[in-house]
Amino acid sequence: MKVIIASDHAGFELKEKIINQFKVDFEWVDNGTFSSESVDYPDFAHPLADKVSKGEFEYGILICGTGNGIGMTANKHANVRAALCWKKEIAELARQHNNANILVLPARFISDEDAFAVVKTFFSTAFEGGRHQRRVEKINIR
C-alpha cells in the first residue's frame, strides 16, 4: 500500500521513525518536512490533504506537536476525514465508525511504541459501513 506522510518540525523525528518501522509494510511518499527546523504546519498539511481529497492517495499520516493544528488544516479539504489518535482504541474507532483516511499523531504526547501501535491499528481496521456510512456522508459541507 502506498501512503503519503508529512509533518512539521515537531513531528519530524516521529515521522522518520514511523517510515523506518514500517518500511516493509508500506510504500512511503514523504511530503516533508525534512528536518527539525521550524516550519508552518499548514504548508505540509494542505498538500497532503489535497492529494487524499482528490483520490491520489487512499490514506495519509500527518504529525505535529499536538496534532491539533495539522488536523484542523487537513479537515478543511473535502472528502478528508483526519482523525487525531493517541491510543490504538481511538484509531480503531476512527476507522470503524468514521472511515478516517488521514491519521493525525501528536508527536509531543505519544511514545514511539504507542505511535507504532496506532499506525498498525489504523491500517489494519476496516470501515464498518452500515449506520456509520449515513453519518460519514453528512460530514462534508453541502
Main attributes?
142 residues, 42% helix, globular, alpha/beta, 6 helices
Describe this structure in words.
- Helix content is 42%, strand content 16%.
- It has six helices and five strands.
- The protein has helices at residues 12-21, 42-53, 68-74, 88-98, 112-124, 131-137; strands at 2-7, 27-30, 60-64, 82-84, 102-106.
- Strands 2-1-3-5-4 form a five-stranded parallel β-sheet, sandwiched between helices.
- Strand 1, helix 1 (12-21) and strand 2 form a beta-alpha-beta unit.
- It is globular and about 45 Å long.
- The mean pLDDT is 96.
List the SSEs and their pairings.
Layout: E1 2-7, H1 12-21, E2 27-30, H2 42-53, E3 60-64, H3 68-74, E4 82-84, H4 88-98, E5 102-106, H5 112-124, H6 131-137
Parallel strand pairs: 1-2, 1-3, 3-5, 4-5
Helix pairs in contact: 1-5, 2-3, 4-5
Structure summarized in a few sentences:
This protein is of the alpha/beta class and 142 residues long. The protein is 42% helix and 16% strand. The chain is built from six helices and five strands, in the order βαβαβαβαβαα.
